[in-house]
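Hi all, long-time lurker, first post. I run a small reading group and we've been trying to get comfortable going from sequence to structure in the token notation. Rather than ask abstract questions, I figured I'd post a concrete chain and ask someone more experienced to write out its structure so we can walk through it together at our next meeting. Sequence below, copied exactly:
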Amino acid sequence: MSLKKLILTGIATLTATLLFAQSSTNASDFWNNVRFGGSIGLGFTNNGFNGSISPSAIYQFNEKFATGASLSLNYAKFDDDKFLAYGGSVLSLYNPITQIQLSAEFEQLRINRTLATQTINIEDNYWLPAFFIGAGYSTRNLTVGLRYDLLYNDNKSIYGNSIMPFVRVYF
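-- Answer (accepted) --
Happy to help. Here is the structure in token form:
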């Protein structure tokens, strides 16, 4: 038997074992640990505004750690320049104590922007990554805080600056 067939057989056997080993109780336990919600964000500068909404789902491993995925829709307007962005992200949340939430989030956005000059409008479309680290104050299902984009690019980012307040809610 070739190495490739052996590996595929092993993966198939492991997958079948895991699937058949799951009981209906385990499946319901999984969904009992999934929380739905998301975040909204607002950013303001002297010449503009940025707003975002991100519905998401997270899996709560325990009272301290959760991870999940999110969809994102962002809109920004700075002077005569307009940005529309959409995409997704993966995030991890850690609560060292109940009231403090630390977060890390990698976001990939498709940016559609229009830059207006006195003589011409320039349209530009591109992909933009962002990597946020954040901290917030949590009370039950609500967290309010600040996040910082480590990959912030002043020329391409849809965000007004690298620091952005957020509100997260999970049920």
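A couple of things your group might point at:
The first strand starts at residue 34 and ends at 45.
Residues 1-32 form one domain.
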